[in-house]
Design the sequence.
């Protein structure tokens, strides 16, 4: 069943630039467990998309299979959604954005979906730098099949049944950075203050923006011994950077420059304001970012924030010089050379 | 020695060389020379899965009646490969000729007294005339073309013109190539009695015909169909389809002023991703396709089932090769019929088009997109290596400028404005096909695509009745498909007969020739060539109208026969398989033998 949220028009509710209320960015009621981190991420997405005044029909919500992949149903009911097959969301998103480059793509994946069955597609959507937000709702566990370790579970962490994971974990952000990702961030589902501007920056970034969000599973991975529980994350997270997203038409006020802050200007005129919380950290240098991540990982700390950005890596369409008009809107006459050209061509086949 | 039979414009010429020595251009030159003399001609490349060093053959059939299949004979063998000399010698039909490079002696044990062996010192001639080692190897190939020109009486003027056209940008090469031609030509003239009784004779100019491969024609068809997104993973023998599409896109679809590309070709990380990209592109309303071969279809099956159930148009081009598993990647087979018909888990079935030659590859590469969009389902274009990679003479391709793509049942913002509410999977007019919308156009058209259980409104469901309602409607759609796919082609015998032959795809040429030969022996058979699955009405009528129906196909397990039996199990015992599946294109001889043997058994019974 799809549970539709009753739409209640509240007098005096705030509207965004295109005249829509926050509620217009909501979707069906969540069927995830009460307290699931994923629902907090959904709320952050709703907030970010509303604040950015994105037209619902311009948005495509893509996912694979798993708890995380259910969430596209829970935000922006006026957008097209696509719940594909396990681990293959990136390829469908790539094809969709190839066919219509004007769409705003949000892919919601999970640690099983991206780091196990879909590890190949995760790598290649990054390599191709498809212009989309690639959000991983990372809880270290398979929920729908009842509690198996996922590839992001840390070595030494325990399952709900007490088994110890002996394998090394696959670190989504370090992997993404080392594979050449143009935008990599990490956050925590419980940190909305950090997450909303990070999501906005990721959507504005012209390329594949990977945002790994640690999102505790209240049913299977919120116990002592888990390194993806609410309490563990709260105790071990470390903000390396803080971001804010400044739309194209807004003025960047001098007060933003307090401390170690600088703007990353995007091609559309908007900016991501980046403030280093840790002075050692430089998210524009790959080796610095990886080194920082590794140093803190070895201390058991979970580094969050915008971890790496290079807004100048060419995205898929600039690599392939695709026309700016969405391909699906090209007129047939612009695609078909006609009978005369066919006859000319065949003179060379004789 | 048998009397030398005169065979004018009716011979098979086979050239045995080593892969990577540059014989392809020499063989192309031979093909085109025969073509321009007006002789119907086909060229089959029998090559290894290798870049350099393994044996390779090129088989040219010239036939004044226009027979296109392999005949099973070899009239003239050019044995340039010492490794395979013995085998090549053995393959020449009695009364035939073998030409070899006599620079080095061949062992006396390798002889036959029922054929004529002609030695031409090709290496010696080329070594004396050319100084660079690489050039010598290449020119040796050109020199055998020269010897053949004398022996087969090819028109030297045509050969010269062809060289001039080939090397228009490098006139120096015309002279050196012509020099090599004359080395072979003069040697043959001086040492043998030219021409041979097996020879060519000008019979027209073949105007109205072209030489083309199926892959080339398929890629061109995709361009003409208005496909904009091509996603693929390289795999023999389908790679030529995307090479062709790319080449024609670069020729016709780059904006001369801005340099903008009106296409997006994505070399995917694997076939799973290629299939996902095709599904994504078609979902947003762009025509997307993927060319692949059998192993690719195995990997794509997950998405094929998804697209079937979520009803997303998608075009899969399968250029079949020999399976199972890696099989023989450079050999041909029709072994993926069942795989494509029912690809993926659960109850699935998919329309398939079967072109018989490059001409139909071009036509059907357009039809396949129209069908996919009309039916909102995956549709296969099923060719094979023989059609895809070999050189075929077909009539010129034609294009109707009034053609516009059939996008099927699509609602835009204007249509949606007139509606209270849009739902995705509701069949409003009984053809089993629901209306769809494209993302990016109207929030009223938004819906959720899912491979999980859904009801007619597009909502998630685990309700038994709601689930079955949708899956049953897909059967209604299947019935609609039967009326939309291309008709079978029926060719009646010139007298009433209870015998029928059914074939499809690249087996067509062998059946055409076999029917003529059988008719000469007094065996007459009607012929039905299947061009699509699901079968249209006339297929079942044809089966019911004959007592014995030979089903000719290039696989071991009689896959098409099995599909026919599912459709019309009342006539199952009348179907007789003629099967050929060793990787070589089916020769007409195989069909003739199959029919005669069965008729003999019937008579004896």
Sequence:
């Amino acid at each position: 069943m799809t549970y539709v949220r009753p739409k209640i028009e509240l007098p005096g509710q705030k509207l965004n630039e295109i005249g829509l209320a926050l509620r217009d960015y909501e979707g069906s009621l969540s069927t995830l467990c009460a307290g699931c981190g994923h629902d907090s991420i959904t709320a952050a997405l709703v907030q970010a998309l509303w604040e950015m005044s994105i037209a619902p029909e311009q948005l495509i919500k893509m996912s694979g299979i798993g708890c995380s992949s259910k969430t596209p149903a829970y935000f922006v009911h006026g957008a097209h959604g696509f719940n594909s097959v396990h681990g293959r969301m990136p390829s469908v998103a790539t094809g969709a954005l190839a066919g219509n480059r004007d769409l705003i793509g949000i892919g919601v994946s999970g640690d099983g979906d991206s780091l196990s069955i879909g590890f190949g597609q995760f790598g290649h959507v990054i390599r191709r730098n498809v212009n989309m937000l690639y959000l991983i709702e990372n809880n270290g566990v398979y929920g729908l099949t009842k509690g198996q370790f996922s590839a992001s579970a840390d070595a030494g962490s325990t399952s709900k049944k007490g088994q110890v994971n002996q394998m090394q974990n696959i670190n989504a952000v370090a992997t993404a950075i080392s594979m050449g990702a143009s935008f990599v961030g990490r956050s925590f589902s419980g940190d909305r203050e950090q997450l909303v501007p990070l999501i906005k920056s990721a959507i504005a970034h012209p390329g594949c923006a990977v945002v790994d969000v640690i999102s505790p599973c209240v049913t299977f991975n919120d116990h002592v011994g888990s390194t993806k529980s609410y309490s563990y994350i709260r105790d071990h997270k470390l903000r390396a950077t803080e971001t804010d997203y400044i739309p194209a038409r807004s003025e960047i006020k001098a007060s933003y420059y307090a401390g170690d802050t600088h703007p990353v200007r995007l091609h559309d005129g908007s900016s991501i304001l980046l403030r280093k919380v840790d002075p050692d950290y430089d998210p524009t240098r790959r080796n610095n970012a990886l080194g920082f991540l590794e140093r803190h990982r070895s201390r058991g700390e979970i580094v969050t924030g915008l971890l790496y950005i290079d807004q100048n890596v060419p995205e898929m369409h600039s690599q392939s010089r695709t026309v700016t008009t969405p391909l699906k809107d090209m007129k047939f006459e612009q695609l078909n050379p006609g009978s005369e050209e066919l006859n000319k061509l065949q003179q060379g086949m004789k | 020695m048998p009397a030398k039979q005169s065979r004018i414009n009716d011979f098979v010429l086979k050239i045995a060389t080593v892969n990577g020595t540059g014989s392809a251009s020499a063989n192309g030159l031979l093909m085109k020379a025969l073509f321009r003399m007006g002789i119907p001609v086909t060229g089959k490349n029998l090559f290894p899965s290798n870049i350099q060093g393994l044996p390779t053959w090129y088989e040219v059939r010239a036939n004044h009646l226009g027979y296109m299949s392999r005949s099973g004979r070899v009239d003239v063998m050019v044995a340039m490969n010492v490794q395979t000399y013995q085998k090549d010698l053995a393959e020449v039909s009695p009364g035939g000729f073998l030409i070899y490079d006599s620079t080095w002696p061949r062992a006396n044990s390798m002889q036959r007294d029922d054929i004529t062996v002609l030695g031409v010192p090709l290496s010696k001639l080329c070594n004396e005339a050319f100084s660079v080692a690489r050039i010598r190897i290449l020119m040796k190939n050109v020199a055998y073309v020269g010897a053949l020109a004398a022996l087969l009486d090819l028109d030297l003027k045509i050969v010269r013109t062809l060289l001039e056209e080939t090397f228009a940008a490098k006139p120096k090469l015309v002279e050196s190539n012509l020099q090599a031609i004359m080395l072979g030509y003069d040697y043959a003239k001086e040492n043998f009695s030219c021409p041979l009784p097996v020879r060519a004779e000008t019979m027209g100019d073949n105007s109205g015909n072209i030489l083309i491969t199926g892959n080339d024609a398929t890629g061109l068809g995709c361009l003409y169909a208005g496909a904009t997104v091509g996603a693929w993973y390289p795999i023999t023998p389908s790679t030529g389809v995307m090479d062709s599409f790319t080449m024609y896109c670069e020729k016709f679809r780059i904006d001369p002023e801005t340099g903008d590309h009106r296409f997006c070709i994505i070399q995917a990380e694997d076939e799973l991703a290629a299939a996902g990209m095709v599904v994504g592109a078609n979902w947003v309303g762009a025509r997307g396709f993927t060319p692949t071969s059998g192993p690719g279809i195995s990997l794509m099956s997950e998405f094929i089932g998804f697209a079937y159930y979520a009803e997303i148009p998608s075009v899969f081009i399968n250029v079949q090769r020999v399976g199972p598993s890696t099989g023989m990647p450079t050999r041909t087979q029709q072994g993926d019929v069942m795989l494509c018909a029912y690809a993926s888990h659960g109850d699935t079935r998919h329309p398939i088009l079967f072109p018989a030659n490059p001409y139909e590859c071009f036509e059907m590469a357009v039809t396949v997109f129209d069908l996919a969009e009309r039916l909102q389902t995956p549709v296969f274009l099923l060719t094979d290596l023989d059609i895809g990679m070999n050189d075929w003479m077909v009539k010129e391709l034609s294009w109707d400028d009034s053609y516009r793509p059939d996008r099927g049942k699509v609602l835009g913002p204007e249509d949606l404005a007139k509606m209270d509410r849009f739902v995705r999977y509701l069949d409003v007019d009984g053809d089993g096909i629901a209306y769809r919308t494209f993302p990016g156009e109207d929030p009223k058209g938004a819906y959720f695509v899912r491979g999980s259980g859904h009801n007619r409104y597009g909502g998630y469901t685990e309700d038994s009745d709601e689930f079955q309602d949708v899956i049953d409607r897909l059967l209604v759609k299947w019935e609609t498909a039967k009326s939309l796919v291309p008709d079978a082609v029926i060719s009646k015998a010139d007298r009433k007969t209870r015998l029928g032959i059914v074939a499809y795809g690249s087996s067509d040429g062998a059946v055409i020739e076999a029917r003529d030969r059988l008719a000469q022996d007094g065996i007459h058979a009607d012929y039905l060539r299947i061009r699509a699955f699901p079968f249209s009405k006339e297929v079942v009528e044809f089966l019911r109208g004959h007592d014995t129906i030979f089903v000719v196909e290039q696989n071991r397990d009689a896959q098409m026969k099995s599909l026919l039996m599912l459709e019309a199990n009342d006539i199952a015992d009348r179907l007789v398989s003629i099967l050929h599946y060793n990787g070589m294109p089916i020769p007409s001889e195989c069909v003739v033998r199959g029919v005669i043997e069965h008729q003999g058994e019937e008579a004896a019974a």
Notes: The two ends of chain B are 40 Å apart (CA to CA).
